[in-house]
Amino acid sequence: MPNTLSETINKKLLEKLNLAFINVDSDMRVVQTSGNLAQYGYDEVAVGDDVTEHVDFLVGIDSDQALTLPVLASPAGMPVSVNLMPESGQLTVVIADAKDQFDLQQMLQQKANENQLLMEKQRKLLAQLHSAQTQLKEKNKKLEEASRLQSGFLSGVSHEFRTPLSAIIGYAELIQQDKSKEHNQGTLELKHNVEPIRRAGNHLLTLVENLLDHGRLDAGEIVINPKPVQVIALLKDVEQMMQPLARAKHIDLVFNDDIDPGHWAYIDESRLHQCLINLVGNAIKFTDSGSVVVTSYCDADILRVLIQDTGIGIAPEDLAKIRLPFWQASDTGKVGTGLGLSITERIIEVMGGSLSISSEIGVGTEVTMELSAPQTGEADEQMPVVKCEFDQKLSILLAEDDYDIAQLVVLLLEEANADVTHVENGELAVKAMRRQDFDLVLMDINMPVMNGYEAIKIVRGEGNEVPIIVMTASVIEADREQAQQLGCDGYLCKPVDVIDIVAIADQVLPRS
Fold it and tell me: Residue 132 above 80 pLDDT?
């Protein structure tokens, strides 16, 4: 019976991900096994067995070398992913079903391609309107329908991806941030092993953001929000995020930042962060040996970032094509959506900057980003204090249909000094608010029986003015506007941290 929070969460994660694992010593003898290898078509092994006699892909493997095999055919013909993780003279082999991931990537690629074709059709229709006024009304109807479908698609993609990613990232961070003083070797290893889960979740979230931004850019909905930013701090944050990816590939990632710590620039911090993550991530992805060097400096009101890698390089005939969405050279052997560079260049252009690329096959690639970054000297105002708990005990109603997300949020809120009542849909939320007075309500939107908007409309119609914060996976601006029109007091996009909830609660709750 698990006796710690970390063990409970680890067990739930293993059950959720349906993993199989084998732990072997330096002689490839089995030390421990999950006992469910047969479901992936492998022979069940016993403690003390030579694992190479049962699992053929381990024959000849260096037990001291970490290795990831993204897709591998099991003896039963199932696509599986395999991770080899050496630790303290032993090797842990983790096997997971890769079919859903493979199918999901194919579906995402297909839907994105269909969406791109639909938008190309829109542009052609717009060009024909000038010479075919009699067809204007009918064509406008088609464009409105296409826009509706696009918004629905983006909203659906956002919800379907962000909800499970919120659980993965949230539970992973919860394990790593466990403040318990009783840490044995098992819990330390758990915190170490959960880092790839957290990193992969954040990477998937970046891919989702790129896909959504692709639709927003075509619809002209990208909004730039500049503010005073300490440039060197942003660059250091990017370096810390990308170093684990470089170390995993055994390449050097070097940041040369010739920027004074006192240099503050007026720029959109989140968009610049997104662009740098995409560009540095691409350089690491296509570099298998050598280094990636990032050199940054500010010249007057211009920020210049040069990213040099010793990767595979790009053929001259492909330099123009790589800027196109969804395009990748077919002979790279690298998996991806082909959206990162396209999205980055278009965001940089919206921010008033430019991107140039030079490359040589077998030598490497240089990417130069220039961006307008007017100097402000220092922040216009002091940074706010980051709070992780409420100033006073709060009674909070959480309406959330996803069980994993709900359990995570309840746990975080209780640690932040709150009593939490959880319900699974809007109808139950309305009934709960009729029975009891709450200090704050966190309301999901996409729920069964009654959605969040319907519930908010009912309680506001009954005169209940309790502060309501929408907490949803949707990033569509129309959803945010609808929430404001219904009288909501705040809007948070998943994944949500307890710091975000505490901060917005401070803004909407009445002062005592």
Answer: no
